[in-house]
Amino acid sequence: MMMNVNRRAAMGKIVGFAGMAAGVAVMSPAVFAADECPIDDAIGVGSDGSDLGTNLLTYVELDPFAVAKRAYEGYGRGGCMYGVFDAIVKELAIQGNEDACNFAAIPTNITVYGGGGVKGWGSICGCLNATAMIVNILDVEQSAVIGAMYRYYEKTSMPRGDDNFLAKIGAPTRTDNAGALLTADKIGESIANSILCHTSVSHWSTASQYGSHHAAKAERCAQITAEVAFKTVEFLNMSLAGTLTAEDSTLEMYAEGNDSCNSCHAGNGAEPDTYLTPGVNSNMECQTCHAPHDEIAKIPHHAEESCATCHPQ
């Protein structure tokens, strides 16, 4: 039998024990979002790995603007990954559905590491990392939602910067060196052509002429955090309604320019005696980093080869 206890009192004891053992304890406010939630089986998604599919949490329709506002504000507290993840989890926790207590039990501070493409390494954008993390535990068309969001990020000029969206999320809030608000005309837009943080920021910096340590970059990333949260919820709502699938051609789930690359470089089961070319397991847009064989590529190796090098007659 599952026992209901006063959650705040119980977690207070846990914090106290942890503090005595380690000298410090950090608990997310989300842990205390519902005082009368059951302690046993908190979160409820399991930890065996193979059983996740039978322990998915129920998604309910959310307001994209409410989530986007939370995400914009959350960026200032914990960065981009935290902003997206915390916003969606907190909104799901207050909806009163069957899994509200499970969502309330998720400590959203675990996502702070994702800022700056994972602690400044410039790898996957924390916003997208958060999208995949939350979608992974929801009973939705996961591949479709993640694919739609990742491709949107790759090909869309961001941040969107329209007056209605900015007003709904309460942006901008940061200022330039002269103390003037960093409005949309100053922040500008750029297309990432990649899901990687450093590529996305570099393209924006080139377009806006602001350095990556300027407050404009923080404002830009806060707005993109809100936009990714907004679009993730839109795609989740579409999945809930049954109008989003991985086969939806209107969403362009992958870059069409990849087709020519995949004709030679698609993943394969070759062994050394049959190996011809590297097999690439990726849906990312190839030509952001790899130019076609007939152009000088950013990876010079391609420029030195001809078709016959790999495909002898």
Q: What are its keywords?
A:
two-stranded antiparallel sheet, about 325 residues, mainly alpha, 12 helices, about 45% helix, globular
Question: Could you describe the 3D structure shown?
Answer:
The longest helix has 30 residues, at 64-93. Helices cover 45% and strands 1% of the residues. A two-stranded antiparallel sheet has the order 1-2. Helix 2 packs across helix 5 (126-135), helix 5 (126-135) packs antiparallel against helix 6 and helix 5 (126-135) runs parallel beside helix 10 (215-241). It is globular, with a radius of gyration of 22 Å. The protein has 12 helices and 2 strands, in the order H-H-H-H-H-H-E-H-H-E-H-H-H-H. The model is unreliable at 1-25, 29-33 and 296-300 (pLDDT under 50). It is mainly alpha-helical and 313 residues long.
Rg value: 22 Å
Structural class: mainly alpha
Strand fraction band? under 5%
What's the helix-strand series? Answer: HHHHHHEHHEHHHH
Distance from N terminus to C terminus (CA atoms, Å) equals: 72 Å
The number of distinct helices, counting runs of at least 4 residues, comes to: 12
Strand arrangement in the largest pleated sheet:
1-2
The backbone outline, from C-alpha atoms, is: globular
Q: Estimate percent helicity.
A: 40-55%
Q: What's the β-strand tally? A: 2
- Low-confidence sequence ranges: 1-25, 29-33, 296-300
Mean pLDDT across residues: 82
What oligomeric arrangement do these chains adopt? single chain
Biggest sheet statistics: 2 strands, antiparallel
